[in-house]
Amino acid sequence: MIWQAFWAVVRRDLLLAWRRKSEGLSAVFFFVVVAALFPLGIGPELNVLRNIAPGVLWVGALLSSMLALQRLFEADYRDGTLEQMALSPVAMPLLIGAKMLAHWLVSGLPLVLLAPVLGLQFDLSGDALVTLTLALLVGTPILSLVGGVGAALTLGVRGGGVLLSLLVLPLFVPVLVFGAGAVEAQVSGLGVQAHLSILMAMLLPAVFFGPLASAFALRIALE
Amino acid sequence: MNILRANFLFHYAGPQAFYGLAGRLWPWCAALAAVFGLWGLWLGFMVAPADAQQGEGYRIIFVHVPASWMSMVIYMAMAFWSVLGLTFNTRLSGMMTRALAPTGAMFAFLSLWTGALWGKPMWGAWWVWDARLTSELILFFLYLGYIALTSAIDDQRRGDRAGALIAIVGAINVPIIYFSVKWWNTLHQGASVSLTKSPSMAQVMLWGMLLMALCFWLYTIALVLYRVRTTILHRESHTAWVRAIAQEAA
Amino acid sequence: MIWVSWSQFWEMGGYGLYVWGSMGVTAACMAFESWQARLARSQLLAQLLAENEGNL
Fold first, then answer.
1. Is B195 inside any structural domain?
2. Domain-embedded: residue B28
3. Full residue range of the structural domain in which residue C40 is found
4. B-chain residue closest to A146, CA distance
5. What gap in Å lies between CA B78 and CA B100, rounded to an integer?
6. pLDDT tens digits for B39-53?
7. Is residue C44 part of a domain?
8. Does residue B157 belong to any structural domain of this protein?
């Protein structure tokens, strides 16, 4: 029964996102635009671009995630579904986790798939592109899971978007450091295992504690 | 015995009782802060000799280090009150956390400011991305985030609880951030001298620093107690005892 | 006393700008904070009094 509820929520959120494609795609477009703007601002020299690529692409993914987080709970908060989730016999963190999974599939996974293509614009090597994709694959779920707390706390609050960004920024810094660091380590010939291991070590607690903390925050917002 | 002790603690958890206690305490803290401050400054500027490597410029540490310590201590205090508040659902916890935040932010800012003014003559740059400065910067953002969140939420109780959660999450995050930034820093560090290496200090210098730290700590306690009294008056403005105080103050 | 003269004290071996820039801003911030706390209290008390008069 519990897992039926979980997948039901995932399916529902995916269906809703499909019906409002423009919302989901906007964050992805933002990522593409950011990745295109940096070379335009810095210059076409490939050596420079290769150096800044990991950082730029990761920051682009981060900013895109921050934008997308606003949509995580907004719609359900407004139409009362969130209250229903709070009242449901199924544990709220589980349902929130389902929402986060759907959210990542819509807003995070496209970034992972796009990153290698954008990385080509920065003349990253094949190995670096693989590392970048892997790092984003592990890192972007962390952003959705951990960012949910910020999204929950700023529900219905004035200036929500900017405030959300300020709140989740410190939470994203470790992911950024190790995520971009993994690609740089790859490029400079050091092993990437350490970075990817640490990212995994951040992902696993995030899977457990992210929905828990967000559910707690949502109850604060709902009362 | 346990019941008596619990009663004592929970007695002061009530806003009115705490208002009185804070009112009696803060002047003493302020006076002690002044004493320690003057003593520390005298040691720091009138007794301690010039440093072998840094000349007179090192004297900035007499405010830089205490400010950094306070910015971290205050955040820990905020996390403490937040845990208390979410566990026992006391109104006072939220008020204390809110009262601590501006002073914490101020010390974080001062840590960055004085750090920059120390770094420029010593290491040639206003800002370096070393682990401690970068962590301090993020701590500053944590303070700003808390203040922004609690200011933006109109419902005071919801604001208290939301702020408490973000304070706790931030406190858990701080060691993670510090570790990440340290890692990040060692990967990229060139031949530059690390700002974290401080010269081995003469006794006098250490004493001066400790006294200034005590001064800042007592200043914080005094100011926060004073500030929370105002918050208590504001939150409890509908009660008779607050109205009586307002009449008296006229 | 380690200083020969007042001017030497203010100069801080050439680091005067940095040392006094730090001390000065620190003192200014703490003074501002204290002043602001006092102002908040007196403003609140005035406001409460005005509300009381209104209620009576």
1. no
2. no
3. 15-55
4. B169
5. 7
6. 999 998 888 888 777
7. yes
8. yes
B&C contacts, CB < 8 Å = 92
Half-sphere exposure (Cβ direction) of A105: Cα atoms closer than 13 Å: 15
Look at chain B and report how many structural domains it folds into.
1
Phi, psi of B67 (to 5 degrees): -65, -45
Q: How many helices (H) and strands (E) are present in chain A, helices listed first?
A: 10, 0
B1-55 tens-digit pLDDT = 566 566 766 788 888 899 999 999 999 999 999 999 999 999 988 888 887 777 8
User: What whole-number percentage of chain B has pLDDT above 90?
Assistant: 56
Q: Helix or strand or coil: residue A122?
A: coil
Greatest alpha-carbon pair distance for chain C in Å reads 67
Number of domains in chain A: 1
Q: Which structural domain range is residue A114 located in?
A: 2-222
Q: How many C-alpha atoms does A16 have within 13 Å on its Cβ side?
A: 16
Domain assignment present for C2: no
Q: Does C31 touch chain B (CB under 8 A)?
A: no
User: B134, B67 in Cβ contact below 8 A?
Assistant: no
Tokens of B221: 């306690």
- The structure tokens listed for A122 are 């920065």
Give the tokens for residue A85: 């989730």
Q: In a 3-state reduction of DSSP, which class is residue B37?
A: helix
Collect all residues from B whose CB is shorter than 8 A from any CB in C. 45-50, 55-57, 59-60, 63-64, 67, 102-103, 106, 109-110, 113-114, 117-118, 120-121, 219, 223, 226-227, 229-230, 233-234, 237, 242-243, 245-247, 249-250
Query: Which domain range does residue B113 map to?
Result: 36-48+59-188+200-249
* Residue B90 falls inside a structural domain: yes
Overall domain count for chain C: 1
Q: pTM value?
A: 0.90
CA distances from C43 to A102, A111, B5, B100, C7 (A): 50, 52, 37, 20, 43
**Residues of chain C with C-beta less than 8 angstroms from the C-beta of B26:** none
